[in-house]
């Protein structure tokens, strides 16, 4: 486990032995494709934690995104327990450790918040909810990630929604932010449509607001959110491997997170695909850090 810095300077445990409401952890590596170097993604969690440090002393200040201080005037209820040990190309081992940590946090009980890593870490993260089902998945992404396999690997970053669709505890999938030309073949789109995934393009959100996505989520449902940084417009999130114009704005994303917290229950959250080698001026890490603040605030405020 890494000792410091933690996200927002949060503790790694609550001093009075209270159970935390949410637990942040990071996993640098998931399932890599043969010959693929994913080491750049391993820098993401550190960049996000570093970007959050300027706000570490402001936790009790008024946050205009949330309409009040981060913890809504209550004691701190989120901890950051650091990074779990992962090794690039140890695909099965990485998946096992991520799933085990997710299950451990859920049994505490608390809401897990995972910092990736590429979005292959999403597969074992979702698998960790098997005993919590049924859950619905809200994927915020430019791509549908529905490939069955790539170079013989079925658990890589192109396949998380295909694998999620096969999990018995996943009751449905909503995918929002879709745009441009990505890795999806026509057969992948057909598979997503056969499953019944609700596909919401970025243009629909720009035209109709976040209700275009929220309307597909049953009230009171348990929802696991996976946020791929390339869902966000590269004007504010340049540090991704697949920049695509026309992405979601910061305001749309925080409205989506807040709206989800009011409509349903955020049961887990991951943020993936920040790629620091493509970063410009620290803007991506700053945007990611602010989004995570909103996630914590929404979790604190949900029933």
Structure description:
- This protein is α/β, with parallel strands linked by helices and 303 residues long.
- It has a single domain (7-301), classed as Ureohydrolase domain (Arginase, Chain A), CATH 3.40.800.10.
- It is 30% helix and 17% strand.
- It contains nine helices and eight strands.
- It has helices spanning 44-51, 91-106, 122-127, 160-165, 186-195, 202-208, 211-214, 250-263, 283-301; strands at residues 22-26, 78-83, 111-115, 135-140, 170-178, 198-201, 222-228, 265-272.
- An eight-stranded parallel beta sheet has the order 2-1-3-8-7-4-5-6.
- Helix 4 (160-165) links the parallel strand 4 and strand 5.
- Helix 8 packs parallel to helix 9 (283-301).
- The longest helix is centred in the C-terminal third of the chain and has 19 residues, at 283-301.
- It is globular, with a radius of gyration of 18 Å.
- The model has no long low-confidence stretch (mean pLDDT 96).
- One of its GO terms (molecular function) is metal ion binding.
- This is Arginase family hydrolase, arginase/agmainase/formiminoglutamate hydrolase.
- Belongs to the arginase family.
- One of its GO terms (biological process) is putrescine biosynthetic process from arginine, via agmatine.
- Keywords: Hydrolase, Metal-binding.
Describe the main β-sheet briefly: 8 strands, parallel
Report the average pLDDT across residues.
96
Which fold name corresponds to the CATH topology? Arginase, Chain A
Task: Report the count of strand segments.
Answer: 8
Organism: Rhizobium leguminosarum bv. trifolii WSM2297
Family: Belongs to the arginase family.
Keywords: Hydrolase, Metal-binding
GO molecular function, one term: agmatinase activity
